Amino acid sequence: MMLGNVEFEMAWLAPEQWPRLPQHLVEWLVALCGLPEWLVSIAGWFTSAGVVVGVFMGLFALLSLIERKTLARVQNRYGPNRAGWFGILQPVADGIKMLTKEDIVPAKADWLLHLLGPVLIVIPSILALGVIPYGQDWVPVPLELGLVFFFAVGAMTEIAVFVAGWASGSKFPMLGAMRAISQMVSYELPLIISALAVVMMSGTLSLPEIVESQGGYTLGFLPQWNLFTPWGLSAGVVFFIACIAEANRCPFDLPEGESEIVAGHMTEYSGFKYALFFIGEYLGLFAISALGITLFLGGWQSPLPIFDFLPSWLWFFAKLAVVIFIFLWIRATFPRVRIDQLMRFAWLCLIPIALLSLPTAAIWHYANKANNDIVAWIATMPLVLIPWVVLTVLFNRRLSPATTRTYHFAE
User: Fold this and answer.
1) What stretches of 8-52 adopt beta strand conformation (E)?
2) Which end of the chain is flanked by fewer CB atoms within 10 Å, N or C?
3) Strand, coil or helix: what is 300?
4) Would you give the DSSP letter of residue 138?
5) Are 346 and 189 in contact, with CB atoms under 8 Å apart?
6) Are 343 and 189 in contact (CB under 8 A)?
7) What is the DSSP string of 29-77?
8) At CB < 8 A and 24+ separation, what contacts does 198-201 make?
9) Could you report the per-residue pLDDT of 359-381, keeping only the tens digit for each?
10) Nearest residue to 327 (alpha-carbon basis) of 273, 288, 360
11) C-alpha 197 chain-centroid distance
C-alpha cells in the first residue's frame, strides 16, 4: 500500500512479524512525515526497546501472581484470591500499595546514592534483555558481541548492590551487600565458563548466530540443541544452577536472611524503591533464563519439524515459561542452604565441572568433524559422568552429619 511515496508492507501483518509491528508502524509514520532516515531509525529503535520493556514488565506482574499461586498450591493453601476474579488484580493492588507507601530515608544514609541504588538494579536487566534474539526476525539490538555485552552489563548488578548497601548507612545492609556480592561474583565464574563451551562450538559471540548454529534435526526429529550433547548437558546443568544463584532464588537466596541480616541490602528501603529491587530481580531472572534458552535450548528453534509453521517467538516464550516454572518448583521444594555450603559448592564443585566442559566440547567438535558420532559419545561421556559422580559422593560425605542422629520424642 502506497501513501505519500512511502510503502506499507502487508507482510508486517504476518504472525512472525507481530512483535515488530509497532516498530514498523512508527518507522512508517515517521518516514511518512518526510523526516531524515537517521531519525526514522532512532524512532524505530526506541519503539523496539519500548515493546521489550512493556512485554517483560507485563510478564513481571503476571509472574508475581503465578508464583504466589504456585507456592500456595504446593503448600496446600489459598493464594491471592480477593483482588479481582481469581486474584488476577493482585499485581495492580501491590503496585498501588508500593506507590502510596511512605518513602523513608535513614538519617545517616547518603540521599543521592540511596536513590540511585534501586535504579541501578533495574537498568542492567533491561539492557541485557535488549540483545536476546526472541524470534527469527525479532532481535531488538543485534550486536556482534552480544554475549560479551550481556555479561558486561550484568556485572553492573554487583555495583548497584554495593551502592544500595553502603548508602543505607547501616551495618545490616552493608553485611547483606557484601554477602550478595560474594555470591554473585563466585557464581559468575561457572556461568561464564559454561557459556564459553557454547562459544567454542558455535565460533561466534553473536547470540542470533548461536541460535542458528543449533538449527536442524538429527534423524529427522531430534533437534540439534546444545543441551542434547554430553558437553552441552554438563555445561547446561552448571549454567542453570549458577543462574539460580545469580537470580538470588531459593535455595541460594542468601542475600535475604530473615534470621541473620533481615532483608540484606534492601533493609533500609521502603515504598516504590523497595519495589524496584523486586522488579530488577524478576527482570534479571527473565534475562538469565532467556540467555540459557539461547545458549542451550535452541532459542526460538522449534522442537519438532512439524511445528515449524508456528511463529518462532512463540516457541521462545514457551521455553521461557517452562524454565521459569522450574525455578518456581525449586523454590517450593528446597530449603535455603548455609553461606559456607553455598560458597563451597561454587568453588569446589561447579567451577571444576564447568572447566571440564571445555575439553569435552573440544573432543566432541573434532570427533564430529571426522564424521564419527559414536567415537564422540564414547570419548565424552566419561568426561561428563565421572566428575559428577565423584563430586556427588564427596559432597554427600562431607555435608552429611558425622554421627547418626538420634531423635527423642516426648512420652
Assistant:
1) none
2) C
3) coil
4) B
5) yes
6) no
7) HHHHTT--HHHHHHHHHHHHHHHHHHHHHHHHHHHHHHHHHHHHHHTTS
8) 198/226, 198/232, 198/235, 198/295, 198/296, 199/147, 200/358, 200/361, 200/362, 200/365, 201/226, 201/231, 201/361, 201/364, 201/365
9) 888 888 887 766 667 777 888 88
10) 288
11) 18
All three cell numbers of 49: 526497546
SS3 call for 56: helix
Cis? peptide before 133, omega within 30° of 0: no
Backbone angles phi, psi at 270, to 5 degrees: -150, 170
Q: pLDDT tens digits, residue range 43-52?
A: 888 888 899 9
Q: How far apart are the C-alpha atoms of 65 and 278, rounded to whole Å? A: 13
- The pLDDT, as a whole number, for residue 259 is 60
What grid cell was written down for 368? 564430529
3-state DSSP call for residue 181?
helix
Where do the structural domains in the chain lie, given as residue ranges?
Answer: 8-75, 102-388
Q: How far apart are CA 91 and CA 180, in angstroms?
A: 27
Return the C-alpha cell found at 12.
508486517
Q: Is 223 helix (H, G, I), strand (E, B) or coil?
A: strand
Q: pLDDT at position 97, please?
A: 86
- C-alpha cell, 178: 557484601
Residue stretches of the chain with pLDDT short of 50 = 1-5
Q: Fill in the amino acid letter for 219.
A: L
d(CA 275, CA 100): 12
Q: Which among 254, 218, 222, 268 is positioned nearest to 343, based on CA atoms? A: 254
Task: Label the pairing between strands 222-223 and 217-218.
Answer: antiparallel
Q: What is the rounded distance in angstroms from the CA atom of residue 283 to the CA atom of residue 125?
A: 6
Compute the distance between CA of residue 195 and CA of residue 148 in angstroms, rounded to an integer. Answer: 11
Spatial separation of the C-alpha atoms in residues 299 and 134, rounded to whole Å: 7
pLDDT value at position 151?
A: 92
- The residue among 342, 243, 339, 336 whose CA lies nearest residue 294 is 243
Name, in order, each residue with C-beta under 8 angstroms of 24's C-beta and a sequence gap of 6 or more: 9, 12, 17, 44
Whole-number Å distance between alpha carbons of 196 and 193: 5
